[in-house]
Amino acid sequence: MNTSPEINISDVDEARLVDVSIIIPIYNEEGILSASIADLTAKLAKDPRWDYSYEIILAENGSTDRTIEVATELMEHHPELKLMHNPEPDYGLALRRGILAATGEYVVCDEIDLCDTDFYMRALDKMANENYDLVVGSKALKGSSDQRPLYRRLATRVLNSMLTIFLGFKGTDTHGLKAFKRERLLKVIDRCVVNKDLFASEFVIRAERMNFRMTEIPLTVVEKRQPSINLFRRVPNVLKNMGRLVWVIRVRHRS
Q1: What is the pLDDT of residue 225?
Q2: What is the CATH architecture assignment of 7-251?
Q3: How far apart are CA 222 and CA 205, in angstroms?
Q4: Which span out of 14-18, 115-119, 146-150 was modeled with the highest average pLDDT?
Q5: Residue among 196, 230, 28, 234 at smallest CA distance from 96
Q6: Could you write out the DSSP letters of every residue in 84-125?
Q7: What is the C-alpha separation between 123 and 87, in angstroms, rounded?
Q8: List of residues 6+ apart from 149 with CB closer than 8 A
Q9: What is the CB neighbour count within 10 angstroms for residue 76?
């Protein structure tokens, strides 16, 4: 049973169905939120490949700056924006609840400092024309370009190695951009047992173990600003949830 705190959802109209739901977790992003949303919506408006109705769900979680105020102001000018609020900082829970609140046929999970619309186009094409259920943007795949600082690249490699060794993951990346068919993948969400930093990884690994049709495509990643949460402070929780996943998936064999 999920005992995580409830999230207050504002302006999520369940009756309004769209083609694509874009989920973006946000935490202390007052400095880049306005510019990022302006850039994202402008790129979608200008791209001739983008012929989809859409919503952008900002999954705020525990911000202590003006992120909520800025997001609320943005909603006055961007009707496609919706805001969710969780009082505690929890990336995984924010992402999970954003997915559950989505109304789109397709869901895209993005980051506020990436907003990679080219990934959207390529992933949607893979799902619509090649019948994939899940498309993962990989920073480690041939053809990708990971331009983040060295310590962050090393951290990603260590995490991916742990997922391979301890959980039998066969891909190259789990924690980043991804897109999927909402109705098909909701059953994966139901099986996930962790939140915080490893929810995104568990989601991909369970989809793989449940034999959904999935593929990876290369990404170009450039870090535009310092992460809002210190990487080293996340390590204890990552290790705790890694142990929990090993127990649930490998020991108890709960796929």
Answers
A1: 73
A2: Alpha-Beta Complex (3.90)
A3: 25
A4: 115-119
A5: 196
A6: EEESS--HHHHHHHHHHH--SSEEEE--TTT--HHHHHHHHH
A7: 32
A8: 223
A9: 8
Number of helices followed by number of strands (H, E) in the chain: 8, 10
Kindly report, residue by residue over 172-231, the tens digit of the pLDDT.
999 889 999 999 999 999 999 999 989 999 999 999 999 999 999 999 998 877 665 666
Q: Look at residue 1 and tell me whether its pLDDT is greater than 60.
A: no
Radius of gyration of the chain (CA): 17
Look up tokens 């005992």; give the residue: 3
Q: Is the dihedral of CA 92, 93, 96, 101 positive or negative?
A: negative
The structural domains of the chain, with segments of one domain joined by +, span: 7-251
Closest among 54, 59, 28 to 40, alpha carbons compared: 54
Q: Return the HEC string of 211-242.
A: CCCEEEEECEECCCCCCCCCCHHHHHHHHHHH
Beta bridge partners of 25: 59
Tens of pLDDT, residues 91-139: 999 999 999 999 999 999 999 999 999 999 999 999 999 999 999 999 9
Contact 208, 170 (CB under 8 A): yes
